[in-house]
Amino acid sequence: MAQLAQYHGNCHCGAFKFTLKTPELKEVYACNCSSCSKKGYLWTLPAKIEDFAVVNGDETATLSIYECGKRTSAHKFCPTCGTAVMVRMHSAENPIGINLRALSDLDLDSLPVLMNEAANLEPLYQVPEPLATGVVPEGMTVYHGSCHCGAIRYTLLSPHKIATATECNCSICSRNASLWIYPLTTTARFEGVDNLTEYTFASNLVYHGFCKICGVPIRARFVGDSDTGLDLRTMRMNLRTMNGLDLSGLEIKKVDGRATLPAYEV
């Protein structure tokens, strides 16, 4: 038997904390299905259910549940901060999967990612109907996006083709696997914002919004004044939520948000 290592994990706000015992993680698994792609999950499947232990909160009472497709599994996320924690399968073979992005003591950048091809499994994901855009000004490109369940939809008018994205390793962005662009707030139109839950912490200058039904992180908005250094005319939009956008063709610019003070503490 391989010696087990113990890892610690939590949602960002700390309402749900857990430990995971597993042989040392030397690779992680991604999935290109519609739900996993929008959330940027990185998976591992514990060999035994008892290798996963909750140390704060309750899986049923603390976490929200989202099911889709054939409803063979329940995706569980924190309704306060939006962190996707785990999935519980409705089968005995592999009862749970853990989203490794929720671990606090694992260097994901150092591990190879193996892809599980699931995008074409039946039933095929039905992309939510895009919002009507009306007349698109000359020289502008229109992009459509949504959360997974379609409760929140948006359009974005961009003066250029989207070719780059920012990936931040701070405590919240790394958990959400967000790929950011920074458009002007006036170029985006949202529908269903009453289904958007916002979460803020530390300086309370950035409000991270996610769908309260499916848990997909959509955007982040800025507050404050000009002294904060934030461009209040803009917002962050998560490119993982743009339907039909090929993320593999983007240039990814990495930002060391983890180094920004104050340091994150649960």
From TrEMBL:
Protein name: Mss4-like protein
Signal peptide range in chain numbering: none
Family: Belongs to the Gfa family.
Gene3D superfamilies associated with the record: 2.170.150.70
Sequence ranges assigned to domain CENP-V/GFA in this UniProt record: 7-125, 143-265
Organism: Mycena alexandri
Keywords: Metal-binding, Zinc
A Pfam family matched in the record: GFA
Molecular-function GO terms, alphabetical: carbon-sulfur lyase activity; metal ion binding
Classification via PANTHER family: CENP-V_GFA DOMAIN-CONTAINING PROTEIN, CENTROMERE PROTEIN V
